[in-house]
Amino acid sequence: MLDIRTLLIIDDSAADRKIYRRYLLKDPHQSYQILEADCAEEGLALCQKVPCDVILLDFCLPDMSGLELFDQMQQEIFNTSVPVIMLTGRGDEEIAVQVMKRGALDYLVKQHLTQDVLQLAVRNAIRQSSLQAQLIKTQERQRLIATTALRIRQSLNLEQILNTAVAEVQQLLKCDRVMVYQFAPNTDGKIVASSVEPFCTVAVCDRIEAGDNGTKRQGDRVLITREDFSQSPIPYIYELGLCNCVSLKEQFNTKANLVVPINLSNNGNPTPKLWGLLIAHHNSGERQWQTDDVEMLNEVSVQLAIAIQQAELLAQTQAALAKEKQLNIFKSQIIATVSHEYRTPLTSILAAASTLVKHSQQLDESKQQRFLGIIEQKTRYMSKLVDNMLLVNQLELEKPEFKPIALDLLQFFSDLIEQERETAGDRHELIFKITGNNQDFWGDRGLLQQIFINLMSNAIKYSPDGGTVEFHLVGKESEVIFYIKDQGIGIPIADQENLFQSFSRGSNVDTIPGTGLGLAIAKACVELHGGNISLSSEVGQGTKVTVSLPKISPTGQLSPSST
Question: Taking every annotated instance into account, which residue ranges of this chain make up the domain Phytochrome chromophore attachment site (predicted)?
Answer without folding.
Answer: 157-303
